[in-house]
Amino acid sequence: MTTHWTTADSPVGPLLLTADPTGVLTSVSVPDQKGGRTVQDGWLHDPALFHEAVEQLTAYFAGELKEFRLELRAEGTEFRERVWAALDDVPYGATTTYGEIATRIGAPRAAVRAVGGAIGANPLLIVRPCHRVIGADGSLTGYAGGLERKTTLLSLEGVL
């Protein structure tokens, strides 16, 4: 299946968006992201396919959008997909902890590291709000896009 891509400017740096040929968003990455994507040979640059995603991201960064309404597809293990689905339930302007995510998906508290690994592997930064997950002590821990970006996103949402 051909991967389609475009870029979009944002306050956290240029975003790389990928989608399948039908326009279902498959990733949002930032430069130097741990595990982030980069344009590959054979990918098709197709900005028009991403009109709605770019429009919603622009509105989010302008403080005008609190919930994304985009079709998403991320492939991972069953465990990762459960964690990612739990991220979708963390509302704008709120935070949760790794332990709370573990509880939401029915995993034991001892699964906090595994939950953190799944969150770190989230391919859809910003639109699947992994930036809203913080440490149990309230600290800003781990973010594949970097803690500076996590701080920017949480500040935008009024959390910090």
Task: Give an account of the 3D structure.
This protein has 160 residues and is an alpha/beta fold. It has two domains: 4-61, 2-Layer Sandwich (Double Stranded RNA Binding Domain), CATH 3.30.160; 78-156, Arc Repressor Mutant, subunit A. It has helices spanning 51-61, 78-87, 98-104, 112-120, 147-156; strands at residues 4-8, 15-19, 25-29, 44-45, 96-97, 133-134. The strands form two sheets. It has a four-stranded mixed beta sheet with strand order 3-2-1-4, with no helix packed on it. It has a two-stranded parallel sheet with strand order 5-6. A hairpin with a 5-residue loop joins strand 2 and strand 3. The longest helix has 11 residues, at 51-61. It starts with a strand and ends with a helix. The model has no long low-confidence stretch (mean pLDDT 95).
* Count of DSSP-assigned helices: 5
Range of strand content:
5-15%
Task: Show unreliable segments.
Answer: none
Rg calc? 15 Å
Structural domain count: 2
**CATH structural architecture of the largest domain:** Orthogonal Bundle
* CATH H level, superfamily name of the largest domain: Winged helix-like DNA-binding domain superfamily/Winged helix DNA-binding domain
What brief labels describe this structure?
Double Stranded RNA Binding Domain, Arc Repressor Mutant, subunit A, four-stranded mixed β-sheet, globular, 13% strand, alpha/beta
What's this, in brief?
This protein is 29% helix and 13% strand. It is an alpha/beta fold.
